[in-house]
Amino acid sequence: TTCNFDSHHSLEGLGPISSNKNKADFAGLHVHSTLLTAADEDAVFGLLGAKFYARKIRRKEQKPGTRNREPIESKESVRWIESLELAREARQRLMETLSAQASASVSATEPAKSPLIISVGDREADIYELLVEAQQHREQGLGLLVRSQHNRGLEDGEKLLWRQLAESEQAGSLTLQLPRSQGQKAREATLSVRFTTVTIAVPAHKAKYLKMDTPVEVSIVELREQKAQEGKGICWRLLSTLKVDTLAAALQQARWYAKRWQIEEFHRILKTGCRVEARQMRSLERLRPMMALDMLVACRIMGMSAGARQRPQDPATDWLDEDEISALEAYESAGKKPVKDAPPMSLGAAVKSIARLGGHLGRKGDGHPGAQVLWQGLNKLDPITDLWRRLRPQTTCG
Q1: Pairing between strand 27-37 and 15-16?
Q2: Region 13-32: what's the mean pLDDT?
Q3: Rg of the Cα trace of the chain?
Q4: Which end of the chain is more exposed for a tag (fewer CB within 10 A), N or C?
Q5: Is the Cα torsion angle 306, 260, 254, 116 positive or negative in sign?
Q6: pLDDT (tens digit, 9 = 90+) per residue, 61-90?
């Protein structure tokens, strides 16, 4: 994402964030975040890392063809390689933790299961060097799943990637209920599902200028809306370094890619909830730690919201300390008769209470509280908790 600091005239070290289509330049920072989430349930574990950088020049100012001759280490695209490395390190730490738990368990009779980490990216991550790097870790429980942007050439040289996929046999179909979106009514869409395994050839400019010679074997999955107008409707072409040989595996790849939207939600919380673009700093050395702190807050909000949806009966102590829970209970029960032997506050109840502080009305049609009202509620809970700590009776001796 990009963070717009164009109105912060005293902030030094910014760069252009406008696209090549815009005539006017806006000053700000580019932010590349790597979020760790669960694959098959609604859970957010935290932020693996984030890279802040200012672009030196606009891309259209470069001479044609110069980017093709540069190694990826000198391009902004290297951030995708760095993100994949963060995923590899996370898998290694997870493996060490599972091995330690298995060793400490007296009743353990089987070795710890090998975890699988999937690095997911949008069409901007359809990069040959990234595919090559991920291919090297295929057998070590690290996968790459990206949306295809380039109609690449194949090793056999006969067809291009998308044509090879279009001519493959339809494996099945999937029916989705799509919500209303901008310019479109809510509708039911039937998607055809195709998948195949191909070997991508080395791009000509990579072989010519960078002397690269490694073909990449990938699985490609297509989900296309059957009754869509030409050029409209859903069409996902997904590249995966994992093996896809069944319809169930193809649909699993689609579900995993759908998780990518969480990074958009994360960035939305960062901007609208934490209001990172409103931070008043004069140097990037001071701004970066503040942005990192805002990112941790955004992760906490996402994790708490997801946990309340998935496991509302979990204890609130997983996310809040005892003083916060006590203050929240006292605020909620103000003027009410105390209940004897009341059970500990659950996560679902705590999130609803925090959301009410943030302005969520909790009506039948309001749905689950969103990230922004949770941010607002937590912001109000802080002074309530501070007041609770100051005014509660202290146990003293003598």
Answers
A1: antiparallel
A2: 81
A3: 25
A4: C
A5: negative
A6: 667 667 778 899 988 899 999 999 999 999
- How far apart, in Å, are the Cα atoms of 397 and each of 310, 368, 392, 394? 44, 46, 16, 10
Q: What is the pTM of this model?
A: 0.87
Bridge partners, residue 197, by sequence: 219
- Cβ neighbour number for residue 97 with a 10 Å cutoff: 12
**What DSSP letter does each residue of 308-340 carry, written as one string?**
HHH-TTSBGGGTS-HHHHHHHHHHHTTTSPPPT
Q: Between 245 and 102, name the one with better pLDDT.
A: 245
Structure tokens at 288: 């970066």
Strands 15-16 vs 216-225: parallel, antiparallel or unpaired = unpaired
Q: Spell out where the chain has E strands.
A: 2-4, 15-16, 27-37, 44-53, 117-121, 142-147, 172-178, 187-200, 216-225, 235-240
- Given a cut of 70, whether residue 108 has pLDDT beyond it is no
**Non-local CB neighbours of 100 within 8 Å, separated by 6+ positions:** none
pLDDT in tens, 136-182: 998 889 999 999 999 999 998 888 999 999 999 999 988 877 777 66
> What DSSP character marks residue 154?
B
Element spanning 55, H or E? none
Is residue 346's pLDDT more than 60? yes
**Nearest-angstrom CA–CA distance, 302 and 86:** 20
Edge-to-edge strands, sheet with 117-121: 117-121, 142-147, 235-240, 216-225, 187-200, 172-178
The separation between CA 50 and the C-alpha centre of its own chain, rounded to angstroms, equals 12
Residue type, 296: L
The dihedrals phi and psi of 29, each to the nearest 5 degrees, come to -125, 150
CA of 27: how far to CAs of 5, 9, 10, 99, in Å?
6, 9, 12, 47
Contacting residues for 235 by C-beta, under 8 A, at least 6 apart: 222, 223, 224, 225, 228
Token pair belonging to 318: 């997983």
What distance in Å separates the CA atoms of residue 118 and residue 259, rounded to the nearest whole number? 11
User: Of 10, 96, 18, nearest to 58 (Cα)?
Assistant: 18
Asked whether residue 185 carries a pLDDT value surpassing 70, the answer given is yes
